[in-house]
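Field log, afternoon session.

UNIT: design team B
ACTIVITY: writing a sequence onto a fixed backbone
BACKBONE:
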C-alpha cells in the first residue's frame, strides 16, 4: 500500500485517533479533522486530541474479563490508545486508569509526529460528498446537530439518544484522612482506593439530601433515557433507598481498619493523576446542579471540606441504530465509502469506542488497497461487539459495553467463574487463527 491511498477521519477523540493511527500504519495518508481549539463541545476543555471527559478508568485490566480481553485483542493490532494508557497508568487496583492529561498529551504527540497524518484544526459541519476516498466519521457522543442531521439524511434513520453522566473530581489535600481509609475490595494491604465510610444514620441523611437536591432540568429537545451502566446516582436512588448500598456505595469487602467491620455504606475515591493531587468519585455520575452537588457530597464523611476540581455533569450521547445502518465492516449501508467509529456506532465505553476506531481504520485502509474487508470472529471480543451492533433486533437495540453476554453461548457445563476464562481462551485461539488466515 502506498501513501497515494488517502483517508479522511472526522473527529480527534479516542476512536478518531485510533482510526487515523491504524490507517497510517497500513501506509495510507490520513487527514484528521478536529474542531478544537477553534470550537469546544459542552464537555471538552483541552486542545489536545483524545481528551477523556468522563472517568479516567478504562476499566478492568484482567485478561479474563471481557473488557480486559478486548484490550488484549487491540494490543495485538498495536493500538495507540492501549499503548498510551499503559504508559500513563495510575494505581487503580485491577483497573487500567490513566493520568488523563499525560494520556492525551502522549497521543497528541504521536499523531502529530506521524508523517502520514495531517491534522486540520477545523470543523466539518456536514459529511463530505461521496467519492473514491474512504471517510471515517468519529465525532463521538456530542456530534453536532448539523453533522447528525447530515448523517440522518444519508441513512434515512432517526437517531437515538441517551445521556452519559460525569462523576466529580476532588482535590486530595482537601480530604479528611482522619476519617477516610485506604483499601481495595477484598485485597490485603493498603489498596489503591480511598474509602469514605458511612454508618446507617449518615447514609440515611445522605440519601435524603440526594433525593431533595436540585437537578439540572432537561432541555426541551431532551428525553430522560439513560444508559443502564452509567446511571446518575439520584436516578439509582429512585429505585429504592438501598440501591446505592448494592451499587456504587457497596461496603462489602472494605472493612474499616479502625473497627475491623464493613461500614454500612462506602463512597470510593480513585486516583485521578500520577501526582496524587486529585481523586475521582467512583460511580457518582449525577445530574444535580453544581450548588446541590457541593451541599450533598460534602455530607459524605471525609468530604466535609472537599474542594471539587470538577463537578459532575451530564450530556447527550448520539448513536445510530446499528442493525439498520451498519454493515459488519462498519461501513454504512447506503454509502460504502463512509465508515462509522466510536460511540456513534452504538458501543459504550472508552475501550469499545476505540476498538471500533481500530476496525474502521483497518477496513478503510483495506478498501483503498482493494482488499476484502475484515469482520472478526464472533467468539472474539471484537467480533462480539460487531455482532451486537449489526445482528440484533432494531426495535430493541441499545448501546452496550463489551461483556460475555454478547459472546456465543457456552454449551459446556461448567461453574460460572470458569466461563469467562473458557471464553477468553477460545477468543485467543479464534483471533490467532483469523489473523493467520487474513494475513494481518
Amino acid at each position: 500500500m502506498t501513501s497515494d491511498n488517502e483517508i479522511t477521519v472526522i473527529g480527534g477523540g479516542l476512536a478518531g485517533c485510533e482510526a487515523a493511527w491504524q490507517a497510517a500504519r497500513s501506509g495510507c495518508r490520513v487527514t484528521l479533522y478536529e474542531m478544537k481549539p477553534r470550537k469546544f463541545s459542552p464537555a471538552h476543555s483541552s486542545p489536545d486530541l483524545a481528551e477523556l471527559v468522563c472517568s479516567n478508568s478504562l476499566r478492568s485490566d484482567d485478561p479474563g474479563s471481557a473488557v480486559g480481553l478486548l484490550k488484549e485483542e487491540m494490543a495485538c493490532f498495536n493500538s495507540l490508545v492501549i499503548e498510551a494508557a499503559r504508559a500513563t497508568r495510575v494505581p487503580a487496583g485491577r483497573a487500567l486508569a490513566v493520568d488523563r492529561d499525560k494520556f492525551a498529551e502522549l497521543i497528541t504527540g504521536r499523531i502529530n509526529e506521524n508523517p502520514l497524518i495531517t491534522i486540520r484544526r477545523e470543523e466539518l459541519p456536514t459529511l463530505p460528498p461521496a467519492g473514491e476516498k474512504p471517510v471515517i466519521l468519529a465525532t463521538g457522543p456530542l456530534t453536532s446537530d448539523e453533522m447528525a442531521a447530515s448523517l440522518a439524511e444519508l441513512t434515512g434513520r432517526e437517531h437515538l439518544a441517551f445521556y452519559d453522566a460525569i462523576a466529580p473530581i476532588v482535590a486530595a489535600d482537601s480530604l479528611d484522612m482522619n476519617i477516610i481509609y485506604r483499601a481495595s475490595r477484598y485485597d490485603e494491604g493498603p489498596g489503591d482506593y480511598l474509602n469514605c465510610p458511612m454508618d446507617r444514620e449518615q447514609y440515611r441523611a445522605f440519601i435524603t439530601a440526594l433525593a431533595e437536591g436540585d437537578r439540572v432540568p432537561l432541555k426541551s429537545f431532551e428525553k430522560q433515557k439513560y444508559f443502564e451502566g452509567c446511571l446518575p446516582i439520584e436516578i439509582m436512588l429512585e429505585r429504592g433507598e438501598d440501591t446505592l448500598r448494592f451499587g456504587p456505595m457497596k461496603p462489602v469487602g472494605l472493612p474499616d481498619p479502625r473497627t475491623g467491620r464493613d461500614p454500612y455504606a462506602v463512597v470510593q475515591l480513585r486516583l485521578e493523576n500520577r501526582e496524587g493531587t486529585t481523586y475521582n468519585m467512583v460511580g457518582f455520575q449525577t445530574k444535580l446542579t453544581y450548588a446541590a452537588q457541593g451541599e450533598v457530597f460534602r455530607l459524605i464523611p471525609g468530604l466535609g471540606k472537599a474542594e471539587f476540581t470538577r463537578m459532575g455533569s451530564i450530556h447527550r450521547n448520539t448513536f445510530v441504530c446499528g442493525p439498520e445502518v451498519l454493515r459488519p465492516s462498519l461501513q454504512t449501508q447506503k454509502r460504502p465509502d463512509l465508515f462509522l467509529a466510536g460511540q456513534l456506532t452504538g458501543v459504550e465505553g472508552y475501550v469499545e469506542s476505540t476498538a471500533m476506531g481500530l476496525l474502521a481504520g483497518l477496513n478503510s485502509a483495506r478498501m483503498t488497497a482493494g482488499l476484502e474487508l475484515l469482520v472478526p470472529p464472533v467468539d472474539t471480543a471484537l467480533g462480539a461487539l460487531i455482532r451486537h451492533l449489526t445482528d440484533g433486533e432494531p426495535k430493541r437495540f441499545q448501546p452496550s459495553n463489551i461483556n460475555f453476554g454478547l459472546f456465543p453461548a457456552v454449551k459446556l457445563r461448567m461453574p460460572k467463574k470458569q466461563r469467562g476464562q473458557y471464553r477468553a481462551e477460545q477468543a485467543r485461539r479464534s483471533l490467532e487463527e483469523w489473523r493467520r488466515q487474513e494475513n494481518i
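LOG NOTE: The chain has two domains: 6-159+320-438, 165-314.
NEXT ACTIVITY: expression trials, pending approval
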